[in-house]
Design brief:
The protein has one domain (3-55, 62-91). The protein is 53% helix and 0% strand. The protein contains 4 helices and no strands. The longest helix is centred in the last third of the chain and has 27 residues, at 65-91. The two termini are 26 Å apart.
């Protein structure tokens, strides 16, 4: 999951957002538009570090396999939840 999925959700709702890797700030912008809660948004701050920490070679820290898989699972669940929310909204248009 990339922050772009959240940005797409905000764009669909014609909501401006600043360019940021701060997923908490993006989460707060999404809350007014949720017709059903997305529990995965509650822990999104845990994914923020993956947006920038490992972006360039030579990072001071590399996640182990378990941590990477856990982060990928969280991101995938979040992306699925956002897609489901958008599908519901698209069907009402």
């Amino acid at each position: 999951m990339r922050r772009e999925s959240i940005e797409a959700f905000l764009t669909w709702h014609q909501t401006p957002f600043r360019k940021t890797h701060d997923l908490r700030a993006l989460r707060l912008s999404c809350l007014p538009f949720l017709t059903t809660p997305i529990p995965h948004l509650d822990d999104i701050e845990n994914l923020t570090k993956y947006a920038w920490r490992f972006r360039y070679p030579g990072a001071p820290y590399s996640p182990d396999r378990e941590e990477a898989e856990r982060a990928m699972q969280m991101a995938s669940q979040l992306l699925d939840a956002i897609a489901s929310q958008l599908n519901t909204e698209f069907s009402q248009v």
